[in-house]
Amino acid sequence: MDSGQSDPLVSTPDALPDALSDGGAETAPPDTSADLHPDVDLCADKTCEDDLDCTDDRCVEGECRFEVQAGWCAIEQACYQANTVATGAECRVCDPGRSPTAWTDSPALCDDDTLPCTDTICDAGSCGQQLQPDRCLIAGACRVAGELHPGNPCRSCDPGRATDAWQNRPDGNPCPADELSCTADRCQAGQCVHPVESGTCLIDGSCYARDARNPNESCQACLPAASQADWTARGHGTACADDGLGCTRDICDTGSCTHPLSNGFCLIDGACHAEGTAQPNVACRSCVTANSTSTWS
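Below the sequence we write its predicted structure tokens.
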């Protein structure tokens, strides 16, 4: 329906003026003057010179830099060519690859001692030999940890205690047997010892069990509580070897087997006769123990 009035015309400009695009203020171009050649500005009044012919001297961002040239070292304000040996040192050299500003220890300049258990070292300019781990160097010979002394199996190379001398192995370690069944074979205070086992005897080089009799004297026995190295007398009155006579007793006395005559008997010419027995073929003589036990009465 036409009201007789026309709508107002709304137009959108294609572009706003630059002056009005951000509130009417003009945008100024960035100031880049501070970024132009900062090193030139900082180093303009700076002179860098260390008076060394082996360095390249220059200023970078206001700081002096002295770069050592290839193949040279600059040490303590002096120039040295690569491989120059320091004065007064055995094995210090200029080694630019490791340090162009300090002396470098070089074991290659040291003589090798030819020992397989040592490494040649250079320490603060002095040559030396360093023993390798788990090794001993005893009397000029290299030994491995745990290696036994060639003449004494109860001593060994023990680097934890000493690297230049043999050390005693702990007491109780086994050592070569002496081939005797009644002895132990063990280390004690650095020596191989062979103590006699308990309950046995070692007499004249032979082993005997407890209570074993002396082969030559039945009234002597191995009694370890009394002695493990010698025969011991058996108790007085202990039975011993029979002499084959019915009129004698066979008993031990102070370590010897004795055969005392029994009461009521005579022992005449090696034969036993009871009290009152007449002498054969002699009617008026007999065994009278009150008179004699070894002759007819």
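The chain has a mean pLDDT of 88.
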